[in-house]
């Protein structure tokens, strides 16, 4: 009996692998309470006309359905969960609104294959809903004399709670939003939208403002680093002021006036004409020299031919006689 029970457990443990061969991309998403989250599900082109679904759970058989597309591209706006299927881009996009901590858990985004023997194609994500503070970037940089703005995000339960901005380690430096959600002085301004974000603007940054700060609400505080950088030196101006007489007497380089243009053209033509005439003269002189010395060249060639003929006439004649064979 014990062996049979063990075998059943092994088969049950392997059941998801036998029935649910899926493509997964497991990861975790952190979301502040009261905020929204959007999750894109990409699928292959052959599944464009298939039904897509979004459910809470990690096994298809025990997954609570939250959204489903009966039609391609159908959506349910205004609800806590909405889904849109873009068959052109092959992406099924799910949006969950006004999340609470009870919404934390595993979610499945799947393509319904429609066969009991073929597993759906799906991907998974774990959504963790937390309360407290968050930010996109906690590193601020700005030039001295400029202003920088930081956005501190908070969860829904702190919408009516006062927000604080403090120099890290010094609670006496804290400034607090009033009943209207605002605070402002010569160096800092706070503005709470009462939805989930408070904007902190540091004005006229100075070197002494560099350091760590806290954005605080309730028992939570978020560390933010601010760095004031030296201002960028402006480029030196090379513009000079000239009187009308100076400008006419000495035009700036790169500008050609009518008088300077007319004086340069004859000089250029004169130089070109001189070079052309010199080249023609050299060619003509070379041709005349060749024509003048041609008779002497012919005489020298004829004399050389005569010497060769005489030498050949004085060469001894060599003959070879062959003795006839005896009869």
From TrEMBL:
<feature type="transmembrane region" description="Helical">
    <location>
        <begin position="268"/>
        <end position="289"/>
    </location>
</feature>
<dbReference type="InterPro" id="IPR013783">
    <property type="entry name" value="Ig-like_fold"/>
</dbReference>
<dbReference type="InterPro" id="IPR036179">
    <property type="entry name" value="Ig-like_dom_sf"/>
</dbReference>
<feature type="region of interest" description="Disordered">
    <location>
        <begin position="231"/>
        <end position="260"/>
    </location>
</feature>
<dbReference type="Pfam" id="PF07686">
    <property type="entry name" value="V-set"/>
</dbReference>
<keyword id="KW-0472">Membrane</keyword>
<keyword id="KW-0732">Signal</keyword>
<keyword id="KW-1133">Transmembrane helix</keyword>
<dbReference type="InterPro" id="IPR050671">
    <property type="entry name" value="CD300_family_receptors"/>
</dbReference>
<dbReference type="GO" id="GO:0005886">
    <property type="term" value="C:plasma membrane"/>
</dbReference>
<dbReference type="InterPro" id="IPR003599">
    <property type="entry name" value="Ig_sub"/>
</dbReference>
<protein>
    <submittedName>
        <fullName>Polymeric immunoglobulin receptor</fullName>
    </submittedName>
</protein>
<dbReference type="InterPro" id="IPR013106">
    <property type="entry name" value="Ig_V-set"/>
</dbReference>
<keyword id="KW-0812">Transmembrane</keyword>
<feature type="signal peptide">
    <location>
        <begin position="1"/>
        <end position="20"/>
    </location>
</feature>
<dbReference type="InterPro" id="IPR007110">
    <property type="entry name" value="Ig-like_dom"/>
</dbReference>
<feature type="domain" description="Ig-like">
    <location>
        <begin position="144"/>
        <end position="225"/>
    </location>
</feature>
<dbReference type="GO" id="GO:0004888">
    <property type="term" value="F:transmembrane signaling receptor activity"/>
</dbReference>
<feature type="domain" description="Ig-like">
    <location>
        <begin position="16"/>
        <end position="125"/>
    </location>
</feature>
